[in-house]
Amino acid sequence: MTENYKSSVKIQIRYGDTDALGHINNAKYLSYMEVARINYFNSLFGLKIDWDNEGFILAKAEINFRKPIFLIDNIELFVRTSRFGTKSFDMEYVFVRTNADGSKETVATGLTVQVTMSFKTNASIPVPEKYKKIIEDFEG
Questions:
Q1: Burial class (CB in 10 A: 0-12, 13-18, 19+), 24
Q2: Into how many domains does the chain fold?
Q3: Is 59 a domain residue?
Q4: pLDDT tens track of the chain, all 140 residues?
């Protein structure tokens, strides 16, 4: 399920994340994915990206909801880079709940597409080889 994922974050679910039905609002999944993505980038790149000049923007997001998440759930969100294009790359996400008996189950999956941008020209640029190499070295 997550054996090919080398990066994950524990999700702190807050009361304000719930909706009228008592489960986590669907929009919060995107926020959780953002937390995992930022953690991933920070751990791989640290200060190696000059965000004033270039970086990544989110171009697409998909979520597949399998089972609801509740306030009391113990959720770990796994993330990895799964594909490189010329000017973009895909990241995949797996939301895993650890149940009271210690068993684990996938409750949602996601995909985002990031586009590499020059913030000086406000145009997409090819994924810089230096960034691609760091990610590929990490992912194996």
A1: buried
A2: 1
A3: yes
A4: 799 999 999 999 999 999 999 999 999 999 999 999 999 999 998 877 888 899 999 999 999 999 999 999 999 999 999 999 999 999 999 999 999 999 999 999 999 999 999 999 999 999 999 999 999 999 98
Instruction: Assess if residue 55 is contained within a domain.
Output: yes
CATH number for the domain spanning 48: value is 3.10.129.10
Q: Which domain holds residue 87?
A: 7-139
Strand partners, 138: none
Q: Is the dihedral of CA 96, 20, 64, 80 positive or negative?
A: negative
CA distance 92 to 5: 9
Give pTM, 2 decimals.
0.94
